[in-house]
Design goal:
By secondary structure, the chain is of the alpha/beta class. The chain has three domains: 163 residues, no CATH class; 210 residues, Mur-like, catalytic domain (UDP-N-acetylmuramoyl-L-alanine:D-glutamate ligase); 121 residues, Mur ligase, C-terminal domain (Protein-Tyrosine Phosphatase, Chain A, Alpha-Beta Complex). It is 50% helix and 15% strand. It has 21 helices and 15 strands. The strands form two sheets. Strands 2-3-1-4-5-6-7-8-9 form a nine-stranded mixed sheet, sandwiched between helices. The chain has a six-stranded mixed sheet with strand order 10-11-15-12-13-14, sandwiched between helices. Strand 2, helix 10 and strand 3 form a beta-alpha-beta unit. The N and C termini lie far apart (58 Å).
């Protein structure tokens, strides 16, 4: 090898070394982002595919441009000069297209499943390096292969998930069977299923406090309301000493509740509400109704079904079923009367089907909270705790985090209803805001996952807000167009509407408002996750 050949080899080795490093860096950055979104999309390929096509146009177009450039360079039989330009294109693309620049509200959790996905994805990413072995005889060459892999990154993750699917199913079956075995060993355990389009988490927390008066209770933590979340709770926390297991059951598709019921076999169940939630996946309200009542269908003949009969969609589904009713407007079962709500809390009376009555007081605000308390009281009373015994427990009830949670902070008060939002929930939140004394401020990005009804329901939200609020901060111009339109159509002054790019931007604007000495009462209604 002469001197010229040696220099040429060194130069090309450096070029390809830099190219390979850049490829690895770009692959890691983009893979981390799309894996994170896949986790937030509950590992559902269809949901992820729709999300990618909706939210990643800039990414896909940029790497498509790089891919086309690579092909053009190859066709021109480019020199080192062209290769250097190509490397600079890759570096610039990595910097410009870095999708991880923003700080995420919910970080990527490196679970065992995510680690397995990363391993499979890494193997797939080795393919372009195999092309380096005989690059000069290849049709497109390794730079083009690198660009193609980066262009296909979002879809390669779905391919890796498909490859891993048999393994994931086998692992899930093992966990589910183990949970069933643990449940079968707890012979004196009573499982209570809790579901609903909204209110189920609050009822779960309230029931935990009320039933603890006499029983040793375990509840699914936080929003662990999926099959694997329930299984994780059983395997990690259920003990033979527990008397009652409160199992929250969430759903986005028909059959989701039945899947959880087939694992835990609930003895009793409570359906807190049925409404237009997750219509993007459910498609119709009838599917929502059918899914929520999968809990009712799973109960044994000696089980009790508790229904919120204030909800018209639940009333439509009784169909001769045996049930225990509760409500505020409906008085056929456990019902609320003498209701007085202020910004300091709520006072009310609950009467049982036997005619027994008891007065209660709680620091929680809002009609929605009182209705959920009534449901929890109905269950606890039917399980043997007297209405009188429940009085101290009701008084101790705390706000469930991010669900009409009242937070006092110096010169302002926050009504934190940020966990999730739905049409009924927004009405309850606005009602709570209306009771406050001060400058009433709404901060919201609106409601999502409502399918074809999303614009109409958000517009209605804006109309309702106009009659309550003194000022509104909307988070995201495109997302909140319908709310803006509703506000304006109801005569709300545009000078009192601020459209922010982010929640931080909205809150900074609200904190800077001058309210002529009035205390700021800020309703934080919904906070969209990172995949929106």
């Amino acid at each position: 090898m002469d001197f010229y050949e040696l220099v040429n080899l060194i130069v090309y080795s450096l070029i390809y070394g830099v190219l390979a490093f850049t490829y690895i860096l770009a692959a890691c950055i983009s893979a981390r982002h799309f894996i994170h979104m896949f986790q937030l999309n509950s590992y559902k390929p269809k949901v992820q595919m729709k999300w990618v096509l909706t939210n990643s146009k800039k990414y896909l177009l940029s790497y498509l441009a790089v891919f086309v450039l690579c092909i053009l360079l190859w066709l021109s039989k480019g020199t080192i000069h062209f290769a250097s330009e190509l490397i600079m294109v890759f570096i610039a693309t990595v910097v410009i297209m870095n999708p991880q620049k923003k700080k995420h509200k919910t970080p990527l959790v490196f679970t065992a499943r995510i680690k397995r996905l990363i391993c499979t994805l890494s193997v797939l990413h080795l393919l372009p390096f195999l092309l380096l072995i005989n690059a000069r005889q290849l049709f497109i060459g390794q730079p083009t292969a690198f660009a193609l892999m980066l262009l296909l990154e979002p879809f390669t993750i779905l391919l890796a998930n498909l490859i891993n699917r048999p393994i994931e199913l086998a692992i899930n079956r093992h966990y589910i069977n183990d949970a069933k075995k643990i449940l079968s060993g707890c012979r004196n355990l009573t499982v209570i299923g809790i579901t609903g389009s909204f209110g189920k988490t609050s009822v779960k927390y309230f029931l935990d406090t009320l039933l603890s008066v006499k029983f040793n209770v375990l509840k699914t933590p936080g929003n662990f309301n999926t099959p694997l979340g329930v299984v994780k709770t059983i395997r990690g926390s259920l003990r033979a000493t527990h008397d009652i297991f409160l199992c929250e059951m969430g759903a986005k598709n028909v059959g989701d509740i039945k899947e959880i019921c087939d694992i835990v076999h609930p003895k009793h169940g409570i359906i807190t509400s049925v409404g237009p939630m997750h219509l993007e996946s459910f498609k119709t309200l009838d599917n929502v109704k059918k899914t929520k009542f999968e809990l009712a269908d799973a109960l044994p003949s000696d089980g009790m079904l508790f229904l919120n009969m204030d909800n018209e969609n639940i009333c439509d589904m009784t169909n001769g079923r045996q049930y225990v009713a509760y409500g505020i407007d409906n008085t056929e079962g456990y019902y609320v009367s003498d209701l007085h709500i202020s910004e300091k809390g709520s006072e009310f009376k609950i009467t049982s089907p036997k005619g027994e009555a008891c007065e209660y007081r709680t620091k929680l605000i809002g009609r929605h909270n009182v209705l959920n308390i009534a449901g929890a009281v109905a269950v606890a009373n039917r399980l043997g705790i007297s209405l009188e015994e429940l009085r101290p427990a009701v008084r101790k009830l705390e706000s469930v985090p991010h669900r009409l949670e009242l937070i006092n902070k110096g010169a302002y008060t926050v009504i934190d209803d940020a966990y999730n939002s739905n049409p009924s929930g927004t009405k309850a939140a606005l009602e709570a805001l209306s009771m406050a004394d001060g400058c009433k401020i709404l901060v919201t990005p609106g409601m999502v996952e409502l399918g074809e009804m999303e614009f109409e329901l958000n517009r209605e939200f804006g109309v309702n807000a106009a009659s309550v609020c003194d000022y509104v901060a909307l988070v995201g111009k495109k997302q909140t167009e319908a709310i803006y339109e509703g506000l304006v159509s109801a005569g709300f002054e545009t000078s009192k509407i601020y459209v922010a790019d982010s929640l931080n931007d909205a809150m900074a604007n609200v904190y800077g408002l001058t309210t002529d000495g009035k205390r700021k009462i800020i309703l934080l209604e919904n906070d969209l996750p990172d995949n929106y």
